[in-house]
Structures are given as structure tokens and as C-alpha cells.
């Protein structure tokens, strides 16, 4: 069945064993193996089904398990609206029969919950959809999302970790590499798997010593940067000769030498520490130099 509208009795549902005639009342599609015990293959990929129980399978003829095993049922789409309390009632079938479709009632027992789920729609119907995977590019952030898979249209939550001295940003793309919008740490799952890209940026900061004034003493500045990543030190956008300062780890402790500072004219100087993955900038003031005018 790929389309069309099939209607059954909407008032009640009943099964009556009958060798020669109708067995079921109240079903739009009733699957019943005859006493001839022939194979039955039912594939539903579309259509609308209205009845007390829109789709049923039963064995009123008490055929053997071996005979019933000749029946195959696959539901991949369609709209199943029940006036009773079930959208599907399959006596001899369970998980994996339903891989798609929209139903007036949940059909949990007929889906493989490892691969498919039920999305509740605004009109209270239930749509069965395949789960879409969430692929992380960095396993250390496995907990950044509240789930590892979602149904299309469901909302996911991003839990951005608070890591001291780091700015963590997240980018999501679908299977076509289109970026997925994130609002207030939430996103809507598209009809495809998604990729999650995590970027962690170290936030350089001064721990002490910024905006100092030189008065016949060394200027000592401490930052949180890894000293092994320090490339150079600039003063007024010119690289400072290493003879004019000393460095100690912890994380970076920079000391501008008194001899160098005393050689400067009075004024305000821009100081920049340039690391491999960032930089810091501050000023220092010289107002007691021997070269003062």
C-alpha cells in the first residue's frame, strides 16, 4: 500500500473465526492468515487509515507458529488514525515492524528503540522517525550535549563547559555541511546526522603588574600564559631585545631591566607579549628617567 484512504468501522473492534468470509470488524487493514496458511507480505509506505484500530494482525484460525512466520509486515510511512485506543494491534509481531509513519497513539512496542523513536507532534499525534547521530570531533567533550542521538525536529541542549582561562565555542553542521543555528545553547535536529565542532581558545590575562609606572625599579609583570609559547616582547610595536628583560616561569614572569627603563624618555609605552596562540597588551609609564627633559 503506497497511498489512498482506507476506512474501517470506527465504533468497535471484533474478531470472529471464519473459514469463508470476514474475520475482523473495526480495522482499516486486517491481516489474517487463512486456513490455507499461505505466505502474506504486507508493505505499507503511504496512505491514510481510519478505523477503531487502523491496522491489525491476528490469528483467529489458530495457525501454528511456523505458519504465522510466513507473514511479513513492514510499515515505513502512512497516517493511522484510531477512534479507539490503539493505532496498531499486531498479535504476532513486535519490535522492528514500524520504521516510519504517523499515529494517533504510541506504537513503542513495534519499533526498534535503538534505531527509531517517537516524536510527539503539536496535534498530539506520534511520528516514528530514525534517530540521527551526533558526531563529536573531540571525545574529551562527550558531555557537551545532553544526548548522543535525536529525532528530526527535536531540540538538543548544548552544555558548554566552564573551564578556567578558556573560551569554549561550538559549531554544528548537518550532513551537507550547512551550519545549524544555535539559540540560547539549544538547536533543532535536522533530518540528517550532525557534526559537532568544538573550539577551545585560551584566554590570556595579566595576573599582576599591568599599567605600572617606572620609578628607579624593575617593572615586573606576571601573566597566565605558558612561557614556552612566548614568541617575543614588543615595546611600541618594536621587538624588545632580550638583553632588556628577563623571563621566569610561573606562568610567565617578565621583568623589564632597570638599566633599560632608565634609558627611556619620560612617557607612556605600549608593551605587548606575543604568544603562539594569542597576545596581551598593556602600558607602562616612565616619569623618573635620567633622560627626562
Summarize the main sheet.
6 strands, mixed
Number of strands: 27
Strand content: over 45%
Low-confidence stretches: none
Provide the structure class: mainly beta
Radius of gyration of CA atoms, rounded to a whole number: 36 Å
| Widest β-sheet, arrangement of strands | 1-5-7-9-11-10
Globular, elongated, flat, extended or rod-shaped: what is the shape? rod-shaped
Q: Please count the helical segments.
A: 2
Along the chain, the helix and strand elements come as EEEEEEHEEEEEEEEEEEEEEEEEEEHEE
Overall pLDDT confidence = 92
Gap between N and C termini: 97 Å
Summarize the amount of helix as a percent range: under 10%
Question: What does this molecule look like?
Answer:
This protein has 293 residues and is mainly β. Helix content is 3%, strand content 46%. It contains two helices and 27 strands. It has helices at 65-68, 258-261; strands at residues 5-7, 14-15, 24-25, 29-32, 40-51, 55-58, 71-82, 88-90, 101-103, 116-120, 126-130, 132-136, 149-150, 155-157, 166-174, 179-180, 186-188, 194-202, 206-208, 212-214, 219-223, 230-235, 238-239, 245-249, 252-256, 267-275, 278-286. The chain has a six-stranded mixed β-sheet, with no helix packed on it. A five-stranded mixed β-sheet has the order 13-12-18-15-16, with no helix packed on it. Strand 24 (245-249) and strand 25 (252-256) form a beta hairpin. The longest helix is centred in the first third of the chain and has 4 residues, at 65-68. The protein is rod-shaped, with a radius of gyration of 36 Å.
Amino acid at each position: 500500500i503506497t497511498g489512498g484512504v482506507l476506512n474501517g468501522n470506527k465504533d468497535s473492534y471484533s474478531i470472529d473465526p471464519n473459514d469463508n468470509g470476514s474475520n475482523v470488524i473495526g480495522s482499516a487493514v486486517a491481516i489474517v492468515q487463512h486456513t490455507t496458511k499461505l505466505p502474506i507480505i504486507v508493505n505499507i509506505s503511504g496512505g491514510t487509515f481510519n478505523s477503531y484500530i487502523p491496522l491489525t494482525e491476528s490469528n483467529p484460525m489458530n495457525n501454528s507458529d511456523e505458519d504465522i512466520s510466513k507473514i511479513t509486515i513492514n510499515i515505513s510511512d502512512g497516517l493511522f488514525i484510531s477512534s479507539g485506543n490503539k493505532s496498531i494491534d499486531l498479535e504476532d509481531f513486535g519490535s522492528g515492524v514500524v520504521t516510519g509513519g504517523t499515529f494517533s497513539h504510541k506504537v513503542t512496542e513495534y519499533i526498534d528503540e535503538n534505531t527509531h523513536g517517537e516524536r510527539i507532534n503539536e496535534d498530539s499525534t506520534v511520528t516514528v522517525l530514525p534517530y540521527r547521530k551526533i558526531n563529536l570531533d573531540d571525545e574529551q567533550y562527550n558531555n557537551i550535549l545532553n544526548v548522543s542521538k535525536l529525532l528530526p525536529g527535536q531540540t538538543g541542549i548544548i552544555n558548554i563547559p566552564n573551564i578556567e582561562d578558556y573560551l569554549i565555542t561550538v559549531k554544528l553542521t548537518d550532513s551537507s555541511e550547512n551550519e545549524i543555528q544555535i539559540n540560547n545553547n539549544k538547536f533543532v535536529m535536522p533530518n540528517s546526522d550532525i557534526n559537532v565542532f568544538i573550539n577551545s581558545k585560551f584566554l590570556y590575562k595579566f595576573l599582576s603588574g599591568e599599567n605600572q609606572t617606572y620609578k628607579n625599579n624593575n617593572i615586573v609583570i606576571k601573566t597566565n600564559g605558558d612561557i614556552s609559547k612566548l614568541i617575543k616582547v614588543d615595546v611600541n610595536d618594536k621587538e624588545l631585545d632580550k638583553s632588556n628583560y628577563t623571563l621566569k616561569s610561573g606562568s610567565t614572569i617578565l621583568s623589564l631591566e632597570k638599566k633599560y627603563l632608565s634609558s627611556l624618555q619620560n612617557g607612556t609605552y605600549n608593551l605587548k607579549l606575543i604568544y603562539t596562540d594569542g597576545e596581551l597588551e598593556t602600558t607602562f609609564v616612565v616619569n623618573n628617567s635620567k633622560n627626562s627633559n
